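Let's inspect a concrete specimen:
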Amino acid sequence: MFSFLYNRAVLAASALILVTGLLMFGASRPEVIPGGQPLAALPSELGSYRLVQEGVVDQETRDVLRADDLLNRFYGNDHGAANLFVAEFRSQRNGKTPHSPKNCLPGSGWVPLDSREVTIETGMGPIQTNRYVVANGDNRSLVLYWYQSRNRSVASEYLAKYWVVVDAMRLNRTDTSLIRVVVPIANRDDATAEKTAEDFVRSFYPLLRGILPS
């Protein structure tokens, strides 16, 4: 009889109510905006991976995302290549919030074929990530993404919004970052692409954690 509680529409509405409450609560006091290094401080060498190309984020995309800082880079080694995209938000109280890749990818022509959550051991503890296999024509890619707030890594969009409210009440902070990794899938070998993506995450995660606000 309580199955309606797990309906996505209900969860989304609940999250909206919580965020609205947060905005009303936070309007009465100044927010703590954390400092931190620019994302560009991430090294060009990440373990065995080397920077291949700085990606371009056009102004239209920047206007839609409204992130405080963006990173879009392509790295590679002898075994594969990966794209790293990070959108950092120092505050979410003025309508700025991460856009879920699962909503953006279809708009770019990519169709999800498979999705689930996976746990990755990073050397700094395990993190929960969303794993997607997407296709655009004959091209296939593996996508990992999650939300990072200090030492907390969250896969679920709804849980991420919940923690925004909790952090605002406890710490007077709403900062978070969306982290996304994309690895091309060659010869429909999803397993190899997933191994490359997870290996790449382990190569940059401790360094990125040192750059993002703590």
